[in-house]
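REQUEST FORM: STRUCTURE PREDICTION
Request ID: SP-0412
Submitted by: Lab K.M.
Chain count: 1
Length (residues): 232
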Amino acid sequence: MLRIGLIGDYDEQVKAHIAIPRALWLAAEVLECEVEADWIPTTNLERDVEGQLAKYSALWCVPASPYASMTGALNGIRYARENGLPFLGSCGGFQHLIIEFARNVLRIEDADHAETNPAGSALLVAPLACSVSERDFAFRLVPGTKAAASYGVLEIVEQFGTCNYGLVKEYAPQLEQAGLRIAGRDSDGEIRVMELDSHPFFIGTLFQPERSAFAGRAHPLITAYVRSAMGK
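STATUS: Completed
RESULT:
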């Protein structure tokens, strides 16, 4: 039995929160394994992070930010990054993995999110020039990335949900130089997928792959994530 921790503050009104457990079960069916998903409120991760997360095979930082505790969310992401634990971050999870990496790897101590601190001195996540809501969008993956290998193709179409914030492009070169690379862009050039080179599976998406569960389809990226949690 794989235990996967879902970092986020569960809300039954959030479509992604309903979809994610279903998406994991669909992936598990494809891989012929069993998955149990546990919700981990972000406030729980303000302390004793290892004690709470050591039992999980993988972690997923879920959509619907701002979180009750940014500190807790960042602690969970850092644990996955530093311990080689398979990690997926969608929408809010994507945004916060950037902040965690900037603070703890690039040492930009005041790296922040415009949604929670619009007056911040180092905003790595800011409003997108063109936000997207409840629509499908085509974009291209970067050859040779884990994301591209997961899909098996480079041109894909995904559903966004609601994503209003993304990476400030000026910081992209610093992130890439440190190993957090761009793995996919949309047709407008906005960065939609990033992954950590040195990690077995550490991917963030500025879209919601879990939405495929509503159509009863196992998603290739989520299937690859669960496969990584199996150690394969």
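NOTES: Helices lie at 15-31, 49-53, 70-82, 92-104, 146-151, 172-177, 220-229.
Reviewed by: T.R.
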